[in-house]
Amino acid sequence: MTSLEQTARTGTSRGVGVLLVGVALALWIAFGRFLFGAGGELTVAYLLIGVLVLVLHIFISRALARTAKRGFTVRPSTRGTLIGAWGCGILLGLTIPDITADGMQTIVSGTQQPALDVAIGIANPAGIVMAALTIIALVLASQDANGPRPSEDEDF
Questions:
Q1: 142 and 63 in contact (C-beta within 8 Å)?
Q2: What span, in angstroms and rounded, lies between the C-alpha atoms of 40 and 59?
Q3: What are phi and psi of 2, to 5 degrees?
Q4: pTM over 0.70
Q5: How wide is the angle at C-alpha 37 spanned by C-alphas 41 and 98, nearest 5°?
Q6: Burial of residue 82 (number of CB atoms within 10 Å: 0-12, 13-18, 19+)
Q7: Can you tell me the distance from the alpha carbon of 82 to that of 84, in angstroms, rounded to the nearest whole number?
Q8: Tens-digit pLDDT profile for the chain (156 aa)?
Q9: DSSP structure class, residue 133
Q10: Residue 144: closest CA among 19, 24, 20, 7
Q11: What secondary structure does DSSP assign to 16-48, as a single string?
Q12: What is the DSSP letter of 151?
């Protein structure tokens, strides 16, 4: 097995790993509240967010696999951005509100005030930052798949 074949195999497994994390994150955002008895009427709306997360992760995983297949490396900024997006996605799943028989509630606060208002106040920025970081990770992963930019040799 050549080094390029081994790198491609590792890259494919990384791509699959990113895809699995994307599936888990999408399920967490869309349905995680049901694990804690806080699921309700807004599930369909949050399912759309989950689908967006999943689609973006499909493209990211393909770009990571292409990067390894071509023999290039994934930059630390790509990994860091993706991990940051995952952290914000987990936070979003914990703080996203839903309407239940008891009223509006989140996983971390239940229906208790003022914790409910604080959780809702955290959910919106967490979702926006998660979406932005995921899109940035996709752009960076796509650039990684194209290889390093050629540098110009400058004569001094």
A1: yes
A2: 30
A3: -80, 165
A4: yes
A5: 30
A6: buried
A7: 5
A8: 565 565 556 667 888 899 999 999 999 999 998 988 888 888 899 999 999 999 999 999 999 999 888 888 888 999 999 999 999 999 999 999 988 888 889 888 888 889 899 999 999 999 999 999 999 999 999 998 887 776 666 555
A9: H
A10: 7
A11: HHHHHHHHHHHHHHHHGGGGGT---TTHHHHHH
A12: P
Structure tokens given for 153: 């040799």
Name the residue type at position 47: L
- The number of angstroms, rounded, from the C-alpha of 121 to the middle of its chain's C-alpha atoms is 20
Q: Which two tokens stand for residue 27?
A: 């399920």
Q: Cα–Cα distance between 88 and 78 in angstroms, integer? A: 16
Burial 13-43 (b: 16+ CB within 10 A, else e): ebbeebbebbeebbebbbebbeeeebbbeee
